[in-house]
UniProtKB/TrEMBL annotation:
Pfam families: ABC_tran, TOBE_2. GO terms for molecular function: ATP binding; ATP hydrolysis activity; transmembrane transporter activity. It comes from Alloyangia pacifica. This is Putative spermidine/putrescine transport system ATP-binding protein. InterPro entries: AAA+_ATPase, ABC_SmlMolc_Importer, ABC_transporter-like_ATP-bd, ABC_transporter-like_CS, Mo/tungstate-bd_C_term_dom, P-loop_NTPase, Transp-assoc_OB_typ2. It comes from the Bacteria.
Length: 355
């Protein structure tokens, strides 16, 4: 069988006359997890619905292992699904819930498969319990086991841990990663939680307003964001308006000169937005060449780090994260200088609105 996984190619979709997906393209390699990530309403669930066959896209192709799914009926797509509301049958035991789609199998085989799946999701001891007596996390593990029971070709998960508290979420994320190491099932997971996406998926698909902004590994996306939107959505990005003054040189709106350590793809005079990550700024209480002048507002201790909130002269907020040990501690209203690691600054066209 061709090793082509799940492919979404040139998919458009409209609800009534409103187009909500615009030329969506991405692949999920066989046995890998891809997370669809983006703000509310950007079209993540719509893509999942199109893969599941619950809606038919206006245009484009969705294929699994080389087979075009577009014309295949929902029940013949062989997909496992896990949604935010667990949708378990409360009058059936955990084992019966998992066995639900397996009525066609001989009894012994069914039993063996259920017990293997319960082992996989670590719920063997709960086989005879009823869902209402389980915790949210346990119920969601039953839902995962049930989705896997029919040996699906791919797994679709829509905010599967969305209803759970933070600690449970991260426990289940770790479980999912462990389970994937065991069974390696091609999975598309929708989440609006960037930490969750980074924790479980090898590849992220970052979406905005129905368009794919970037596809890549968590590192690629963090280190080389393709757009200002991605830069600010994955992690924090400080933004400053600037003008290109020469090869690799910028002047920010408040007059700071920044010498980049690389040439920029912009002509002198171009209006740009330069962004910095908080952890790529270091703090000084004296003026430094190439440093961003700011006024200290407050600092919050985060373990070994200090998260600094400051203001640029035009009032724009800027954040820095520095090591706490022995570093300077300014007071509210003090002038500070934030020295950027220029190799890690990003520059984007300036016609975007700063938000
Ligand atoms: N059945 C529908 N009829 C009309 N518009 C819809 C329908 N379902 C979704 N939409 C619209 O399509 C757009 C994309 O919705 P979708 O549910 O795919 O977004 P999402 O990224 O999954 O959002 P969320 O994170 O809030 O679940 C939104 O503007 C939404 O209002």
């Amino acid at each position: 069988m061709a090793d082509t996984g799940l492919q979404i190619s040139n998919v458009d979709h409209s609800y009534e006359d409103k187009q909500v997906l615009h030329n969506v393209n991405f692949d999920v390699p066989d046995g890998k997890v891809v997370a669809l990530l983006g703000p509310s309403g950007c079209g993540k669930s719509t893509i999942l619905r199109a893969i599941a066959g619950l809606i038919t896209p206006d245009r484009g192709r969705i294929s699994l292992q080389g087979r075009d799914l577009t014309k295949v009926q929902v029940r013949n797509r062989k997909l496992g699904m896990v949604f935010q509301n667990f949708a378990l049958f409360s009058h059936m035991t955990v084992a019966e819930n998992v066995a639900y789609g397996l009525a066609h199998l001989p009894r012994q085989e069914r039993r063996e498969r259920v017990s293997r799946l319960l082992e996989l999701v670590r719920l063997t001891a709960f086989a005879n319990r009823f869902p209402p007596s389980l915790s949210g996390g346990q119920q969601q593990r039953v839902a995962v086991a049930r989705a896997l029971a029919t040996d699906p070709s791919a797994l679709l998960m829509d905010e599967p841990f969305g209803a759970l508290d933070r600690a449970l979420r991260s426990e289940l994320q770790a479980e999912l990663v462990r389970m994937q190491d065991d069974v390696g099932i091609t999975t598309v997971m929708v989440t609006h939680d960037q930490e969750e996406a980074q924790a479980v998926a090898g590849q992220l698909v970052v979406m905005n307003e129905g368009r794919v902004e970037q596809v890549g590994s968590p590192e690629e996306i963090y280190d080389h964001p393709a757009s200002l939107f991605v830069n600010g959505f994955i992690g924090h990005a400080n933004q400053q308006h600037a003008t290109v003054t020469g090869a690799g040189r910028l002047r920010t709106a408040d007059g700071s000169e920044i010498a980049m350590n690389r040439t920029l793809n912009y002509l002198p005079g171009a209006e740009v937005i330069v962004t910095s990550r908080p952890e790529d700024l270091s703090l000084s209480l004296t003026e430094q060449p190439g440093a961003i002048a700011a006024r200290f507002d407050r600092a919050v201790v985060m373990g070994r780090f200090l998260t600094i909130d400051a203001k640029l002269p035009d009032g724009t907020a800027i954040k820095a994260q520095v090591l706490r040990d022995g570093g300077p501690r300014p007071g509210k209203g003090d002038a500070i200088w934030l020295i950027p690691d220029t190799s890690r600054l990003h520059v984007f066209p300036g016609n975007n609105q700063i938000n």
